[in-house]
Amino acid sequence: MNNATVRHILDTIGEMFPDAHCELNHSNPFELVIAVLLSAQCTDETVNKVTVNLFQKYKKPEDYIAVPIEELEQDIRRIGLFRSKAKHIQHLCMMLLERYNGEVPKAHEKLVELPGVGRKTANVVMSNAFDVPAIAVDTHVERVSKRLGLANWKDSVLEVEKKLMRRVPEEEWTLTHHRLIFFGRYHCKAQNPKCESCPLLSICREGKKRMKPIQVRKDKD
Questions:
Q1: What is the set of active-site residues?
Q2: This prediction's pTM
Q3: What is the C-alpha separation between 182 and 19, in angstroms, rounded?
Q4: Which pLDDT value is given to residue 218?
Q5: What does the alpha-carbon distance between residue 97 and residue 158 come to, in Å, rounded to a whole number?
Q6: Dihedral, CA atoms, 17, 18, 24, 29, nearest 10 degrees?
């Protein structure tokens, strides 16, 4: 894929979603870490409903480890995998207190050492909490990147991230991450993408394949 095509994709998605942003509600880096941890295999909408009360009750790492694990589980039970996530949260908070005086570290290599924090979560925190350019590859970013040919079908999540980092100007990494998520969440959906009205249909491998049967039926009519 040449630079002109990449630029066309970025500009088109930018026009569609100029105000794309992190939809997880948070007021500081610590809350963002907790929110992103909770968001694994769960919608941002559900996480936000839970954290409205959660962040009122738990203000700092000490608060999360001051309660029995069962109480924390009840507070997040609407979230998928709530038991394992409750364990991760308490262990994460203990590590923050033991190693970083209760503060979220700004270094990527330190973030990924925290329980429940993988590369994607670390990238989200780096870019949104600390304004460090990063591209976090979630299910939406991966799907859109592969459909549009920004990455190959068989690429791993890390390979998708590396290809996007090479093809997208560094100063646009964070914004592109948000726009790809919005594009995948609200337009290029997993099950029912809006191919028929997509301005990128002409360069989308998935869209062309999906639209071909429709064209065949029209031809027969």
A1: 120, 138
A2: 0.87
A3: 9
A4: 54
A5: 30
A6: 150
Q: Which amino acid is at 72?
A: L
pLDDT at site 205: 85
Instruction: Give me 22's structure tokens.
Output: 């992190």
pLDDT for position 213 = 62
Instruction: Extract the tokens encoding 86.
Output: 């409750």
66: its two tokens: 């001051």
**What is the token pair recorded at 28?**
């500081």
State both tokens at 59. 């203000």
SS3 of the chain:
CCHHHHHHHHHHHHHHCCCCCCCCCCCCHHHHHHHHHHCCCCCHHHHHHHHHHHHHHCCCHHHHHCCCHHHHHHHCCCCCCHHHHHHHHHHHHHHHHHHHCCCCCCCHHHHCCCCCCCHHHHHHHHHHHCCCCCCCCCHHHHHHHHHCCCCCCCCCHHHHHHHHHHHCCHHHHHHHHHHHHHHHHHCCCCCCCCHHHCCCHHHCHHHHHHHHHHHHHHHHC
Rounded Cα distance between 17 and 5, Å, is 18
If one counts every other C-beta atom within 10 angstroms of the C-beta of residue 70, the result is 10
CA distance 202 to 206: 10
Question: pLDDT value at position 56?
Answer: 97
| Segments of the chain with pLDDT less than 70 | 213-221
